[in-house]
């Protein structure tokens, strides 16, 4: 029986996943966590076979958690379950060390299928995303523009801008200096072609609303 760790900052989501996984005869929920610190403690203490991870967590991002888990124990498999746009995040989570991405809107019907596929050593993505990645490989990656051109850290800062966080709070949450945050903001502004800080903020807010965050 494979052991599954659920990492999500919403208790109802964790409960829903736990019930679905509990009904599967070959799977067992070995722990739940709502933030990065708790997740890392459980990873060290129980060593799950697979961790289901949301991208939005208290105390850090899911991308950061994936990298931390991979560094601590590369044998632990990871599957991201999130409401974020798959076309923007799927390749990022795979590069960070996860083995799959499932949108929460599809999770109720497909989460067990996704878990079993990843446990078999395969990658789980939607058919649309798989086709998109293959097409990008054929065309090359030079056509990536806009938000896709942002680094993982820049994307975190962009999201925080859209959530209305001040640079000082961003710096505290990301454990960075305010100067570093301001540098990231300048790079984001340039990459997105924003003519002013106000325009950048407006675009970030709109993007966060589109993501349903």
Account of the 3D structure:
The structure is a single chain. This protein is of the alpha/beta class and 213 residues long. The protein has two domains: 2-138, Rossmann fold; 146-211, Orthogonal Bundle (Arc Repressor Mutant, subunit A), CATH 1.10.10. It has helices spanning 11-22, 36-46, 62-72, 86-96, 104-119, 127-139, 152-162, 167-174, 178-192, 197-211; strands spanning 2-7, 27-33, 50-53, 56-57, 60-61, 77-82, 101-103. α4 links the parallel β6 (77-82) and β7. It is globular, with a radius of gyration of 18 Å.
Provide keyphrases for this structure.
single chain, 213 residues, alpha/beta, Rossmann fold, Arc Repressor Mutant, subunit A, 2 domains, 5-stranded parallel β-sheet, two-stranded antiparallel sheet, 14% strand
Tell me briefly what this model is.
This protein has 213 residues and is of the alpha/beta class.
How far the N terminus sits from the C terminus, by CA atoms, comes to: 35 Å
Largest sheet: 5 strands, parallel
> H/E element string?
EHEHEEEHEHEHHHHHH
Beta-strand residue fraction: 5-15%
Number of helices: 10
Large-scale geometry: globular
Layout: helices, strands, pairs:
Layout: E1 2-7, H1 11-22, E2 27-33, H2 36-46, E3 50-53, E4 56-57, E5 60-61, H3 62-72, E6 77-82, H4 86-96, E7 101-103, H5 104-119, H6 127-139, H7 152-162, H8 167-174, H9 178-192, H10 197-211
Helix pairs in contact: 2-3, 7-9, 7-10, 8-9
